[in-house]
Design a protein that fits this description.
173 residues, mainly beta, seven-stranded mixed beta sheet, three-stranded antiparallel beta sheet, 2 helices, 12 strands
């Protein structure tokens, strides 16, 4: 089972690995989902890098179906995503909010795309289709909030009804 004593708890959503090497198995993923269920946000991440100042950020992330991943882009870095469990649509937009591509994603066994590279300066979002999505994300560090730009055409983060309507309308035009 996941040994949380090997992690520094930054918040109920963010854990940093203290000691290496480490390994994870299916029971550990279940434990992460159980921890995410206890969070108001219904999400959690395990960071395998040392700090926000690390040159490479490698994370295992758990999101519930209700998680709204706002359309955003990274100004100076690309990121990769690999699905371990669950299903999602990975949506790529142009700068005006027009959908350029929707990629159905799932784990390797699903037969869907399970790995995605998103170039810098590309608006994107994830729409989670399964109850839980577990994925590995890798990107360049150090973390700087100013490097992420949220789409000006996205719905207000607090208005669940607008978010749900927006997601229902997403399609390649």
């Amino acid at each position: 089972m996941l040994d949380l004593s090997n992690y520094k708890i930054v918040s109920n959503e963010v854990y940093y690995l203290k000691n290496k090497p480490t390994n994870l198995n299916k029971a550990d993923i279940k434990k992460l989902i159980d921890l995410a269920k206890k969070n108001q946000s219904k999400k959690i991440r395990l960071c395998f890098h040392d700090s926000i100042n690390s040159n490479v950020h490698e994370m295992l992330i758990v999101h519930s179906k209700s998680t709204y991943v706002k359309p955003h882009k990274h100004l100076n870095k690309e990121e990769t995503m690999m699905i371990l469990e669950g299903n999602a649509d990975y949506i790529i937009f142009d700068n005006t909010g027009k959908v350029k591509k929707i990629i159905e994603m799932g784990n390797y066994e699903s037969g869907k795309s399970f790995y995605q590279i998103i170039p810098k300066q590309t608006f994107h979002m994830i729409v989670i289709k399964s109850d839980w999505l577990v994925f590995k994300e890798v990107t360049q560090g150090p973390f700087n909030a100013k490097d992420t730009v949220f789409a000006p055409w996205r719905p207000d983060d607090k208005n669940i009804q607008l978010i749900n309507e927006y997601i229902k309308k997403i399609k390649v035009k």
